Amino acid sequence: MRMLAGACVALLAFVAAAPASAQESCRNRGTLDARYCDDNGDLIADQPRDPKQWQNPATLVFSYTPVEDPSVYENVFDDLMQHIAKATGKRVRWYPAESYAAQVEAIRSGRLHIAGVAAGPTPYAVNLAGFEPLVGMARTDGSIGYTLQLIVPRDSPIKSVQDLKGKRVAHVSPSSNSGDTAPRALFSAMGVVPGKDYEVLFSGKHDNSIMGVVNKDYDAAPVASSVVERMRDRGMFKPDALRVVYETKPFPRTAYGVAYNLPPELKAKIREAFLSFDFKKSRLAKEFKDTDHFAPIVYKDNWRDVLTIQRTTGITYTQDALTKLGTKSE
Questions:
Q1: What three-state secondary structure class fits 92?
Q2: Is residue 213 within 8 Å of 170, Cβ to Cβ?
Q3: In terms of CATH, what superfamily is 148-248?
Q4: Which of 32, 167, 178, 226 would be a feasible disulfide site paired with 148, CB 3.0-4.6 Å?
Q5: What pLDDT, on a 0 to 100 scale, did the predictor assign at position 23?
Q6: Structure pTM?
Q7: Separation of first and last alpha carbons in the chain
Q8: Class of domain 17-143+252-323
Q9: pLDDT tens-digit series, residues 227-275
Q10: H runs (alpha helix) in 121-244
Q11: What share of the chain is helix, strand, coil (3-state, %, to 5)?
């Protein structure tokens, strides 16, 4: 117990000291946490200048956003993890993130090295955890987007956003782009304020919202179109069980990337592993049927609309905000 307490004190001392040293040499930080710097202005934490601050683990830990049951996706991503292992010469193991907050905190603490982070939580991961987006899943036409869909039961009287007034509507979590921040900004602009004009009930995950609407536990739900499509294709509900009464233009999908302080050579190998992965012959192709490869992404450009929506809704990237980032996946 005494050794554990001493280790905790040492860790706290290190964390407290890190921002101070960064503060002395950092010319620009933007919205990044105090431990990071953004001198090149790309909105992402810069590589630490001192190689002694790089982490080069023997085992790389991989995680996918906790949109649905993590155990399902461990098998789905196994081909990719094996490919990354071969490309890097390191072991790769799975981390079953149970919430957005847990995933971000795992990156921040150095326990998670490669991750697929959902569109909404990606700015939290970038700003609070030093996450560096590299690639996204792309369709044959090169697009990497998904849409916000407002779904209702097939026989619902709801025909538009305006009809949500007085209803019980499932939002995913405060960090979800399509499941909370985007509808708060967009619906409010249409004269329907979430939490005021209708009751907001947080479901914790997109699949919980979707099945809640299918089972009529909720009157409606704003969700990601990509999750609706995957669950429908998997036969989790009948194709005609839902109606879409509102849909946005495309947003970026999950960002796949790495911890900012991995050695540059290792980052390059991981990035190349994603880009060279034979997607069409993998288990991923069976799950993500609309996708056939990974493509490079530029966070500053691809996340411009998401960042604008989050600023509009008053989101700040702080430790307090991180604790409210998401709920348990159950």
A1: strand
A2: yes
A3: Periplasmic binding protein-like II (3.40.190.10)
A4: 178
A5: 46
A6: 0.76
A7: 32
A8: alpha beta
A9: 999 899 989 999 999 999 999 988 898 999 999 999 999 999 999 999 9
A10: 122-129, 182-189, 206-214, 225-233
A11: 40, 20, 40
